[in-house]
Amino acid sequence: MRRAAALGARHILAASSSSRVVPLRHMSADAGAAMEKIRAAGLLRTQGLIAGQWVDAYDGKTIEVQNPATGEVLASVSCMGSRETSDAIASAHSTFYSWSKLTANERSKALRKWYDLIIAHKEELALLMTLEQGKPMKEALGEVNYGASFIEYFAEEAKRIYGDIIPPTLSDRRLLVLKQPVGVVGAITPWNFPLAMITRKVGPALACGCTVVVKPSEFTPLTALAAADLALQAGIPAGALNVVMGNAPEIGDALLQSTQVRKITFTGSTAVGKKLMAGSADTVKKVSLELGGNAPCIVFDDADIDVAVKGSLAAKFRNSGQTCVCANRILVQEGIYEKFASAFIKAVQSLQVGNGLEESTSQGPLINEAAVQKVEKFINDATSKGANVMLGGKRHSLGMTFYEPTVVGNVSNDMLLFREEVFGPVAPLIPFKTEEEAIHLANDTNAGLAAYIFTRSIPRSWRVSESLEYGLVGVNEGIISTEVAPFGGVKQSGLGREGSKYGVDEYLELKYICMGNMG
Ligand code: NAD
User: Fold this and answer.
1) What is the ipTM of this complex?
2) pTM > 0.80
3) Contact, 348 vs 455, CB < 8 A?
4) Is 290 among the residues known to form the active site?
């Protein structure tokens, strides 16, 4: 292994890389105390993880990780590129043989221990997430549970991977189908769920016997590195899980060009997903994509208004609207439009905007300035085309990247708010007359990830669910993701499924074995 031999003093810092962490006196009291807790738990990692070693970039470059709520720099982390990625691939490749040869039970034990450690360090992981991503602590704790659930689930599910015996066409033959791990997996993940988008991929990959190179978002590497640290502590062997971060296109290209990487699994924007899919063609890799959504949330006039308001609020505003399954378009039947709008606005007004470390906060900042500018562009486009801002519609007085919880009325299908993912705390309301029109409006998009329906009618909920061109449908419920059910989109929202027994298949190859002369 090239890197293992090359690892000299320059690349390995001591276990704690405190020299690269911003002194606490430069931070607000809350953030400083939170960082101290994380550091005391040994979970403040700033280097990449390759072959079980914490390493710097070859050229020593670093990038800063900022707290979006305050702008303060939390840490500088290694900024890696193609050389470090090649090392990580070599490490994953050389570990594949031993890891994949373990029994499912042996792999399961290590994963179970990783799960236990994540749960034991729930608070530090949630604090890291809130600091680098901005989500309120309550949501961050929820994500730790959700993220950990994939490791626990797949530790068990991988014990139930069976092949097949096929009745032969010639009597002296025996035909078998084996399920085997695909090999080295490159996992590229976004910033909006800094832990769960990693464990949803790494859990099943490791459980199946694959080894992994993870590239987390440059905005949220600290949570990823802390989780990887816990994996090492749990006994996941050196090289089975590697983490590189920094120059995204360079790392992406290195993963795509390597013939040793047999699968790319990506969660992120549709634009980058398309590039990765095209780039996988050269080496004919397997590809799974979890891309952007544009979820419709259809409120029929027979809906229980309280249930519909509660469900739409949760589906729209969690994570400040920065979720791929966010209710991006709330379609409301004409008969209850006014009633729903006023109840919904009242509920939105109850959201408390603030720093996620404060207990009272229910909506944190957006990830960065570019995200706020995108929201502003969408609002300007909508108002210039006749929509009316019913609540909010501007930056929050807290400054930074805080944006007011916003409701926009009379949105139509020629507006950006209808056509694209706004990825911010903006709820567009769109009136409709009939069920047919609602289905037509809901499907009038290239995306196809999540959809929501609110109705008291069982036949209608069934009929409409079947007609929606989406991978997930919530009926009278705004938050539906769980580790036991398949998650993924149709159309340009992606390829493949994560979670559940179906998520295992993404990391397996079928091998047919024909045994002759058995008669
Ligand atoms: P993004 O596409 O900008 O980045 C995602 C990841 O790809 C990051 O790690 C980034 O560094 C990396 N990346 C960027 N350019 C790359 C390149 N050329 N080669 C290789 N890697 C590259 O997305 P984002 O802004 O981090 O995340 C938000 C998007 O993710 C939204 O569109 C959201 O809907 C989507 N998302 C989808 C799901 C899902 O399950 N379908 C879940 C969460 C987020």
Assistant:
1) 0.96
2) yes
3) no
4) yes
